[in-house]
Amino acid sequence: MGLFRRRRPGGSRFDRDAPAASTPNTHIQPVNDVERGWITEHLDHLLAVGVDVRDAEQLGAHYDTLLARWLGTPDRLRRDPNPDVNLIGLGLGAHLAGRTGLEWAVVSDEASTEIALYASLGDIMIYPTNAVAKRWVGHEIGFLPDFAEATVQTITHIQAAHRTGS
After folding, report:
1. Are 115 and 128 in contact (CB under 8 A)?
2. pLDDT digits (tens, 9 = 90+) for 109-134
3. 117 phi and psi, to 5 degrees?
4. 145-153 LR contacts (CB < 8 Å, sep 24+)
5. Closest to 123 in 3D by CA, of 12, 31, 19
6. How far apart are CA 49 and CA 125, in angstroms?
7. CA 142, CA 159: separation in Å to the nearest integer?
8. Which of 9, 46, 105, 139 is placed for a possible disulfide with 118 were both Cys, Cβ 3.0 to 4.6 Å?
9. Please, what is the Cα angle at 35 between 29 and 38, to 5 degrees?
10. Which of 35-44, 96-105, 106-115 has the lowest mean pLDDT?
């Protein structure tokens, strides 16, 4: 799944990297203390290895290092990439939240329950760990800084349009 998710009227999915809107079957709740602790644990780990999530270049370089190391390991010796995907995805989420004011949330629909970022202004949902997973599976090196900037610009545009009613 991409960073954003939206459904057309009638419920069909399209363009998973387009801005997301909730649907009547989507339930959004604030993260609880356990979920917030899980997020904080990952962000603390990034800080401990010298990655400032406010800096998309640093976060992107760390992602590139982790992916390159994983790709350089023989298939039979590769470990599960999900811990690294979650680490970078939560770092990306923190970066986006810090620049846009989106809040961590637990988003549930008929298909799944996931940690995401949400803003009621513009009805925006972002799935940062899924965005990282999609790029990891595609072996995309170097994507994160430009991706983060484009995402911030998209969010800013959507929210500005909703503020002005256009």
Report:
1. no
2. 888 999 999 999 989 999 999 999 99
3. -110, 145
4. 145/56, 145/57, 145/59, 145/60, 147/3, 148/56, 148/59, 148/60, 148/92, 148/95, 148/96, 149/56, 151/3, 151/96, 151/126, 152/96, 152/99, 152/100
5. 19
6. 29
7. 27
8. 105
9. 155
10. 106-115
CATH of domain 25-155: 1.20.120
First to last CA, the chain: 29
The two structure tokens encoding residue 143: 């994507």
Q: Which amino acid is at 161?
A: A
Helix (H) or strand (E) holding 38: helix 33-48
Q: Is the dihedral of CA 64, 66, 70, 73 positive or negative?
A: positive
Tokens 């994983």 appear where? 70
From CA 105, how far away is CA 51, in angstroms rounded? 23
Residue with tokens 């991409």: 2
Domain ranges of the chain: 25-155
**The residue type at 84:** D
Q: pTM for the complete prediction?
A: 0.85
Distance in angstroms (rounded) separating the CA atoms of residues 78 and 80: 7
